Amino acid sequence: MPGHIKLVKGQADPDPTEFLLPSIDMKRADQQKPYDSKKSVWVADPKTGGYREGILESGDLEDPASKCVVAVGHEKFTHKAAEVGKVNPPKFEKCEDMVNLTFLNDASV
């Protein structure tokens, strides 16, 4: 039950499908995002425990020991290449099967 809908005694619960399945418009908007296969990356966000999408400014992702500078919004972060994950192409955004993904990493799954 979504938190903003009040349950009324005697009525059936509302259908949660709209909250569980992404709409076609939502998928199209995500597929229009700018994407560069060599520079779009995920980095860990220690504040939320999740991941943030950023642009790789310098560093080599192929060498796990190298340092990478990633721009997220107006901030720049330095991470080891092993801590940076590649972003899948926008056509795979909100895909339903992980078999289709190009890169499998914590942020993508």
Notes on the structure:
- By secondary structure, this protein is α+β, with helices and mostly antiparallel strands.
- It has 2 helices and 5 strands.
- The protein has a 5-stranded antiparallel sheet, with no helix packed on it.
- The longest helix is centred in the N-terminal third of the chain and has 8 residues.
- The radius of gyration is 18 Å and the shape is elongated.
- The two termini are 25 Å apart.
- The model has no long low-confidence stretch (mean pLDDT 76).
Distance between the termini: 25 Å
User: How are helices and strands ordered from N to C?
Assistant: HHEEEEE
Q: Which sequence of strands runs across the widest sheet?
A: 4-3-2-1-5
- Counting DSSP E segments of at least 2 residues, the number of strands comes to 5
Overall morphology = elongated
The quaternary state of the protein chains shown equals single chain
Radius of gyration: 18 Å
Q: Kindly state the percentage of residues in helix.
A: 10-25%
The largest sheet is:
5 strands, antiparallel
- Report strand %: 25-35%
Keywords:
109 residues; 11% helix; alpha+beta; 5 strands
How would you summarize what this structure contains?
This protein has 109 residues and is an alpha+beta fold. It has helices at 17-20, 24-31; strands at 40-45, 50-58, 67-72, 75-80, 85-86. Strands 4-3-2-1-5 form a 5-stranded antiparallel beta sheet, with no helix packed on it.
